[in-house]
């Protein structure tokens, strides 16, 4: 059990709708919604537009529920880290009990509604995703191992598989590759952030790789994972969800990503401090666009397929 109630202030004023909405991590939810939608639209088979809308809404609510439960459990370390001090619980706008109640309620609602609207395989997949993020990652891996973001990244990679399953009732090579694309992207994305976040994770006692193994090891890991990521991203271009648009996008993006990773790999702490981590910040900025553009390219292939212009 988290000791959030010990380390966070009591509610200081009546919370607004925006404060409760912030519990759902809307920025993260937007990525969940987009990748799940692409997985759903790229899946073979048909689904009624209204059912598709309900499915995406349920996946979004499930993602938001995960965020609320994550903030409930992590309120103690959120109060320490500069990046998270303004979140609803450490800032005293929402209590831990309120966040927990919202998270549990939305979790159950999203899973049951997805099962009723589509199929129970997709619903079970969503339930497992919530469990993985809250229990496996937040409660266990995050505070225990420097591989936290590597293994825990699976939680954020499941949404396109859930979207795919909502249509097909199962998994496939294509949905697995979409999962792997997000899974392998997560470590270099977060490790780049860690390199210029200075002492935040160390102060909070979170064993991120840069804290436990140092910045040189983190740079090495960023390069290795970027190379593996590129192989997966480009390989997906030759599957049924790929095509010339996707492949061209993947080739350009991954070339830029590899160049950025090599530049980070070649640097030392003195160079980073001298230019205020400009290279790392640029790489992180590119990583924010990376997934959106890859999944956007898959969506373009799907949209153009009826006209004979998408896919192979």
UniProtKB/TrEMBL annotation:
Localization per Swiss-Prot or TrEMBL: Cell membrane
Pfam families the UniProt entry points to: UbiA
UniProt keyword Transferase present: yes
Broad enzyme group: transferase
Top-level lineage group: Bacteria
Molecular function, one GO term: protoheme IX farnesyltransferase activity
Functional pathway: Porphyrin-containing compound metabolism; heme O biosynthesis; heme O from protoheme: step 1/1
Record keywords, A-Z: Cell membrane, Heme biosynthesis, Membrane, Transferase, Transmembrane, Transmembrane helix
Positions of transmembrane segments: 28-47, 53-73, 94-114, 120-141, 148-167, 179-201, 222-239, 245-265, 286-309
Protein EC: 2.5.1.141
Similarity-based family: Belongs to the UbiA prenyltransferase family. Protoheme IX farnesyltransferase subfamily.
Cited function: Converts heme B (protoheme IX) to heme O by substitution of the vinyl group on carbon 2 of heme B porphyrin ring with a hydroxyethyl farnesyl side group.
Note: Carbon 2 of the heme B porphyrin ring is defined according to the Fischer nomenclature.
Annotated protein name in UniProt: Protoheme IX farnesyltransferase
Species annotation: Cognatishimia coralii
